[in-house]
Write a structure and sequence with these properties.
The chain is α+β, with helices and mostly antiparallel strands and 234 residues long. The strands form 2 sheets. Strands 5, 6, 7, 8, 9, 10, 11, 12 and 13 form a 9-stranded mixed beta sheet that branches. It has a 4-stranded antiparallel beta sheet with strand order 2-1-3-4, with no helix packed on it. Strand 1 and strand 2 form a beta hairpin. It is elongated. It starts with a helix and ends with a helix. 29% of the residues are buried.
Length: 234
């Protein structure tokens, strides 16, 4: 594996940044300063030290992104920018994909990974991975409608949703919704079944992951080792 790719997938830096650091002597391989970004290394046996700290090799990449409005959750799209377009160009070729989908105008937490097996497991209906959203609705939601929502609703196509959590703020037109499934436009369609409409939707958690409020819309970071460990338990 190329050294710059190794530094990229382990979350040390982008491959572009790696070239500068390697030139300045900030990376060693088995105790020897690396000579070039495209040097070949064995991630299983070579000892890589980045800016004074040993680098732990991980087979897969995990990225937490704060998705902005107007960006689609896809690897490519003929009309709109995708979540992958928000990453450095050299990372778009690494096999990353969004784990699940957020609607174009829904913002907040989205997980990007190249671990297909884990992605499939997290999205499988039988896994019941919780997804939590902060929302605003056009009209206040009554206590009766909130009870109907919590019990599961029948959508316009006849699909009966699983029970979903809803916690309303005092005004009744905003709060937190928790789902254990992810049907197409599900929250939007559930509110429509109550003759209401979603006006703002932000995902604030996905399984054990929570939205990092230090990330601006469109920003991203690698998952920590602790976050990865919790994610892999699912």
């Amino acid at each position: 594996m190329r050294l710059d790719k190794f530094l990229g997938i382990t979350g040390c830096c982008t491959r572009t940044e790696a070239k500068k650091l390697i030139r300045s002597g900030g990376v060693t391989v088995n105790g020897i300063p690396a000579s070039a970004a495209d040097s070949k290394i064995d991630p299983e046996t070579d000892v890589i030290v980045f800016c004074g700290k040993p680098v732990v090799y991980r087979k897969y990449t995990y990225i937490l992104m704060n998705k902005p409005q107007g960006v689609v959750s896809a690897t490519e799209d003929g009309r709109d920018r995708t979540v992958l377009d928000l990453l450095p160009a050299d990372m778009k070729k690494s096999g990353l994909f969004p784990c699940g989908r957020l609607d174009k105008n829904t913002v907040g937490l989205i997980l990007l990974t190249d671990n297909g097996e884990l992605g499939h497991r997290l999205l499988a209906p039988k896994s019941h991975v919780k997804k939590t959203y902060y929302f605003h609705s056009k009209f206040p939601i009554s206590a009766e409608d909130a009870k109907r929502f919590s019990s599961g609703l029948i959508l316009e196509d006849g699909y009966e949703t699983k029970p979903a959590g809803i916690e309303l703020e005092e005004t009744g037109d905003c709060g937190v919704i928790t789902l254990v499934e992810g049907k197409y436009h599900q929250i939007k369609r559930m509110l429509e079944a109550l003759d209401n409409k979603i006006t703002y939707l932000e995902r604030i958690s996905f399984g054990p992951l929570t939205l990092d409020r230090d990330l601006n819309r469109g920003d991203w970071r690698y998952l920590t080792a602790e976050e990865i460990a919790e994610l892999e338990k699912h």
